[in-house]
Amino acid sequence: MDITAFILLAFSSLFAVIDPLGAIPFFSGLTAHMDQAKKRKTLFRALAVAFGVLVVFILAGHQLLEVFGITLDAFRIAGGIIFFGIGLDMLQSKPRRWQTGIKRAYAADQVNLEEEEIDDPSITPLGIPLMAGPGSITSVMILTPQAPTDFGPGLLIIAVLGILLLTGGILMAADVVLKRLGRTGLKIIEKLMGLLVTVIAVQLVLDGLTPVIKKLAS
Prior knowledge:
This protein is mostly helical. The chain has helices at 3-18, 24-30, 36-67, 72-91, 97-109, 115-118, 122-131, 134-143, 152-172, 174-217.
C-alpha cells in the first residue's frame, strides 16, 4: 500500500465510522437550546476531546495491547466484529448498540449535575463516544501498523484532524444540511455508510484470521 492509498483508506474508514452526517440529528437535538456562539464552543470542545483521545491511541495504543498481552490479529478480529455490528445498525436504521450504555449513564448522571453542566454535552456524548468511540478507536489502532512509512502515525494524525475538521464543518451547518437532505436523504447516506462499514468489517476479520489459519496449517 502506497502513501496515497493509505491516506484514502484512513479518510474513508474514519468518515464511515464517525459518520458526521448521521450525527447531525443527534448534535442538533443536544444543542437546540443553545445560541450559535455556545454551539461553536461546545463543538470545538467535543472535537478537541475526540482528537486528543484518538491521538493517544495512535501513539500508545499498541503499547496498551502489549501490556494486556493482546495481539494485533486479535484486535483486528474484535474490531471487525464491532464494525459489523455498527454497520448492521446503520443498514437497519437502528440506534447504535454501542452508544446505549453511555447514553443511559449520561442520563443518570444528569440527576446530580449542575444546570450548567447539563447544558454542556461536549465531552459526553459528543466527544466520546459519538466522535471518539469504539469504532474510530479501533480504526486508528488497526491503521497505524498498516502505514507504508515510518511517518505513518503522523499521516494518521493528519487524517484524524482532517476528518474531525470536516465533521465540525458539517455539524455547524447541521440545520442547513437537514433542510437540504431531509430525513430521506440522511437515511440513504446512512445506509451507504453502513454498507461500507460492514465491508470494512469483513475485511478486518479476514486479515485477522489469515495469519492464524496459516499458523495452524503449518
